[in-house]
């Protein structure tokens, strides 16, 4: 079945550092890919998405590119802030619109 | 954000008792989902609905049932709660492009 593997955390960074969270997937067909973010005590919010190969999703300074050849959707941000501290989830959507999530990566940014 | 509420937000119950969690949406979304979140597992799909009275099982459906008698409400029932069902439960609505998540229900089964 479909599955998502993402980089294990926790990840601790200093403000203005570069952030990368790796995500790879296994799926039949061509799923849509997502990054969700969960701030402490809250539900998940969509951060960005890509629906076909070579699409780049971006939002709030975060970017991820749908790479079919490497089955990857790595999340990047060039300069993180303390407010980016959260848990990040990579996910894919199957043809029935069900999401499969990675285990989540906890990111802590220190001032 | 889609208007999604979950009730209760916190619940403590005892093993063997039935528990019902409610998800309510105001966006008229066709699809609704129940997930559970556990450390090291991300979110796992319990059940989902693709319309009124149309539901199907997800990855971890054993011990859970759902009902959807109205577009706006999706109920999750733990038929006889067990300690392994201690978790945070999230409802989501939406469909093809995006799922919107509720604030979650934290359930503790003693």
**Could you say which structural class the secondary elements and strand pairing of chain A correspond to?**
mainly beta
**How is the main sheet of chain A built?**
6 strands, mixed
Order of helices and strands of chain B: EEEEEEEEEEE
How many DSSP-defined strands of chain A? 12
Largest sheet of chain B: 7 strands, mixed
Specify the helix fraction band of chain A. under 10%
The span between the termini of chain A is: 41 Å
- Give Rg of chain A in angstroms: 13 Å
Supply the number of helical segments of chain A.
0
The number of helical elements of chain B comes to 0
Distance between the termini of chain B: 34 Å
Oligomer: heterodimer
- List the helices and strands of chain A in order: EEEEEEEEEEEE
What is the mean pLDDT of chain B? 93
How large, in whole angstroms, is the Cα Rg of chain B? 13 Å
**DSSP strand (E) fraction of chain B?**
over 45%
Structural category of chain B is mainly beta
Q: Calculate the mean pLDDT score of chain A and round it.
A: 94
Give a verbal description of the structure.
The complex is a heterodimer of chains A (111) and B (110). Chain A is mainly β. Helices cover 0% and strands 51% of the residues of chain A. Chain A has no helices and twelve strands. In chain A, the strands form three sheets. In chain A, strands 2, 5, 6, 10, 11 and 12 form a six-stranded mixed β-sheet that branches. Chain A has a four-stranded antiparallel β-sheet with strand order 3-9-8-7, with no helix packed on it. In chain A, strands 1-4 form a two-stranded antiparallel sheet. In chain A, a hairpin with a 2-residue loop joins strand 7 and strand 8. By secondary structure, chain B is an all-beta fold. Helix content of chain B is 0%, strand content 60%. Chain B has no helices and eleven strands. In chain B, the strands form two sheets. In chain B, strands 2, 4, 5, 6, 9, 10 and 11 form a seven-stranded mixed β-sheet that branches. In chain B, strands 1-3-8-7 form a four-stranded antiparallel β-sheet, with no helix packed on it. In chain B, a hairpin with a 4-residue loop joins strand 9 and strand 10. At the A-B interface, strand 5, strand 6 and strand 11 of A face strand 5, strand 9 and strand 10 of B.
